[in-house]
Amino acid sequence: MEQPGVGRINSNENENASEKKKMSEEFESNTIMESLIDMPLATLDIKEEFGITDVAHKNKESSKGNEQVRKDKRKKRKKKDYQPNYFLSIPITNKEITTGIKKLQNAIIEQDKRLAKTMSRDGSFHITLLVMQLLNEDEVNIGIDTLLELKPLIEEILQGKHLTLPFQGVDTFESQVGFVKLEEGDHIKQLLEIAEVAKRTFQEKGILAGEDRSYNPHLTFMKLSKASWLRKKGVKKINPKLYEKFINHRFGEEMVYRIDLCSMLKEKQSNGYYHCDSSVVIGL
Predict the structure, then answer these.
(1) How many domains does the chain have?
(2) Which residues pair with 170 in a beta bridge?
(3) pLDDT tens digit string along 109-130?
(4) For residues 84, 90, 95 and 97, what is the CA-based torsion angle, rounded to 10 degrees?
(5) Residue 225, CB half-sphere, CA atoms under 13 Å: how many?
(6) Strands of 258-263's sheet, edge to edge?
(7) Strands 126-133 and 177-182: what pairing?
(8) Contact 88, 128 (CB under 8 A)
(9) Basic and acidic residues bias: where (predicted)?
(10) Which residues pair with 179 in a beta bridge?
């Protein structure tokens, strides 16, 4: 027989527990958002090649109803709070390319040693395919599964052929970001198609992904934002004379074989590579 008042006490305890859980979730979300706001996007640096094959990651089992609720909540997230903290990366591992970039960087540093702090780290060269916001473990798991779903869609675009990216020449974005250019050709069209299908696939899962500006694939080798103190020293732009000897330099070709889902915030590996939650191998 139920004791008087017990039902009311249990009900209050459940309400208190539910309220604490809600407060905890709100605190966690706010803390993550504060970290994201403080982190500049200019810190994207990825590493040299390391062997990874497709890694499957299972989501926690949940009902379709709960999944739809979570998806609706993600879609309702205010766009003003959108600060990417994950990205899809195509690593650049061809030694001819990375050696050429290192020579370019050294040539610039020889002319102005202060610019050493603006250079991308050795082995960090990559092309960003898509940026996104994954705020918790559940969303990271969805991101991992979505990347695996993306693999056959990418291979359908490639139609059994390898995607080879030739790099030649140097340019800047508004004299703030130095990058090695992709040569013109069908490979750019395929890369744009892959980026678009990736964006659409992640957004269909309720993930905030992509940017307002159009996708412009590039291989960054320096950013003035890495050393903001240079502005006080009068260095506000990248002088074209610093890289004029490489303006038409042919750096080499990269065969795309892997796409990584990387975190901008999690602790980097000892070799400088960003934390990688999952990877897929393309065309094998």
Answers:
(1) 1
(2) 180
(3) 999 999 999 999 877 888 999 9
(4) -80
(5) 14
(6) 208-209, 126-133, 86-91, 258-263, 276-281
(7) unpaired
(8) yes
(9) 55-70
(10) 171, 220
Closest of 154, 134, 130, 112 to residue 256, by C-alpha: 154
Q: Mind listing the pLDDT tens digit for each residue in 40-50?
A: 333 333 332 22
CA–CA dist 176, 240 (Å, integer)? 11
Residue in 161, 165, 126 with CA at minimum distance from that of residue 255: 165
* Whether the Cβ atoms of residue 260 and residue 278 lie closer than 8 Å to each other: yes
Contacts of residue 114, Cβ cutoff 8 Å, sequence gap at least 6: 227, 230, 233, 235
Global pTM value: 0.72
Identify each DSSP E strand in 188-268 by its residue range.
208-209, 219-223, 250-256, 258-263
Domain that holds residue 233: 39-281
What letter would DSSP give residue 268? P
**Tokens, residue 82:** 């959108």
Q: Tell which wins on pLDDT, 67 or 85.
A: 85
Q: Which amino acid is present at 213?
A: R
Residues 6+ apart with CB under 8 A from 124: 45, 46, 47, 48, 272, 273
Q: 263 in a domain, yes or no?
A: yes
Alpha-carbon distance 272 to 123, whole Å?
Answer: 8
Domain of residue 266, CATH code? 3.90.1140.10
> Does residue 4 lie within any of the structural domains?
no
Q: Closest Cα partner for 82 from 204, 266, 207, 215?
A: 207
Return the closest-CA partner of residue 118 out of 38, 220, 265.
Answer: 220
Q: Which two tokens stand for residue 270?
A: 């000892």
